[in-house]
């Protein structure tokens, strides 16, 4: 590869990243303003508020040292999560396919799993409630019970995050292997080449079923209703991210918007055969998918109840079985 090609590839990668971040900060606002608010017949926040203005605001807030056994690691986790999501976007860009095994669906799935695991660390490393240390001093006579177990609110979210990792995210990962089964390759370059020759996977029976499974799996991974198992009334807000403040909370907002964009881009790559690439007209497909994706997710969320575990498990199991059927159909 000569110098001009290296420079061109670098510009394409950096430009695609800039576009991804520029678009992703508007996606949460599109969900809230143009879908949730319209369906629920209310005004809603400004479209720039959830994904753009909120992070800017939190960057100027004062940081408080968290009550945690590993405060530096605790505060670093949102940034680590943001880096992981950015790495996934880099992997699916065609300029990065020279990386070989790293530019494969196995690497994508591995990084998505690491991103999920960060929520467990968020909850397990927080030892306070709204920045107040626990256990609270108890001065009421007779109120203290011997050997009473006291737990932190985020620890409940940690347990639910474990359930999400161990069981809930199966549909997304199963759906990703439908294009793999059809192209008979785990490498993104081969999956895209297969679709350029035979047409998008989406327009096949197996691909259409896999797309539905992928969509439901994306909602679970994004912790959207009705699959918001990491957010309960007991957590007040945000589940395991409850205690993050200042710039660390800003990172969580940025990561949420970018993860929506990345999941949409991954869908376009795996099921349509068009990866995110600044120097290709296909970037318009990526952008259109990135906008349509949160609109569909928000539309379903706005009409959905909150699933209990008794409802969550059967739906995830049925969706996983449907994904397995799609994989089986891909061999026909």
From TrEMBL:
InterPro entries: ComplexI_Subunit1, Na/Ala_symport, NADH_UbQ_OxRdtase_su1/FPO
Signal peptide segment: none
Cell compartments where the protein resides: Cell membrane
Cellular component per GO, a single term: plasma membrane
Keywords on record: Cell membrane, Membrane, Oxidoreductase, Transmembrane, Transmembrane helix, Transport
Topological relation to the membrane, as annotated: Multi-pass membrane protein
A Pfam cross-reference name: NADHdh
One function term, GO molecular function aspect: amino acid:sodium symporter activity
TM regions (residue ranges): 6-27, 73-91, 97-114, 161-181, 201-222, 250-272, 278-300, 312-331
Enzyme Commission code: 1.6.5.9
Major localization listed first in the record, in broad terms: membrane
The protein, known as: NADH-quinone oxidoreductase subunit H
Organism: Methanobacterium veterum
């Amino acid at each position: 590869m000569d110098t001009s090609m290296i420079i061109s590839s670098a510009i394409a990668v950096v430009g695609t990243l800039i576009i991804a971040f520029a678009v992703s900060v508007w996606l949460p606002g599109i969900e809230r303003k143009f879908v949730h608010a319209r369906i629920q017949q209310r005004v809603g926040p400004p479209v720039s508020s959830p994904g753009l203005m909120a992070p800017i605001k939190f960057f100027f807030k004062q940081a408080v040292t968290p009550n945690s056994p590993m405060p530096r690691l605790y505060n670093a986790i949102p940034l680590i999560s943001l880096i992981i999501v950015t790495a996934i976007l880099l992997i699916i860009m065609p300029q990065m396919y020279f990386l070989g095994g790293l530019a494969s669906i196995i690497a994508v799935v591995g990084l998505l799993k690491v991103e999920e695991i960060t929520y467990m660390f968020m909850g397990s490393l927080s030892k306070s409630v709204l920045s107040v240390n626990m256990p609270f001093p108890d001065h009421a006579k007779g109120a203290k019970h011997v050997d009473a177990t006291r737990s932190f609110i985020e620890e409940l979210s940690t347990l639910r995050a474990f359930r999400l990792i161990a069981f809930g995210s199966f549909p997304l990962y199963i759906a990703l292997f439908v294009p793999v089964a059809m192209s008979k390759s785990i490498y993104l370059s081969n999956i895209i080449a297969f679709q350029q020759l035979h047409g998008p996977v989406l327009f096949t029976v197996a691909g259409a079923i896999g797309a539905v499974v992928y969509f439901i799996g994306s909602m679970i991974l994004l912790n959207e209703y009705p699959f918001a198992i990491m957010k309960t009334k007991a957590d007040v807000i945000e589940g395991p991210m409850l205690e993050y403040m200042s710039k660390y909370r800003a990172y969580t907002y940025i990561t949420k918007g970018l993860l929506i964009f990345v999941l949409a881009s991954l869908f376009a790559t795996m099921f349509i055969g068009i990866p995110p690439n600044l120097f290709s007209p296909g970037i318009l497909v990526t952008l259109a998918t990135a906008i349509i994706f949160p609109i569909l997710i928000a539309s379903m969320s706005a009409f959905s109840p909150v699933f209990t575990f008794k409802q969550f498990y059967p739906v995830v199991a049925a969706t996983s079985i449907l994904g397995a059927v799609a994989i089986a159909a891909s061999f026909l």
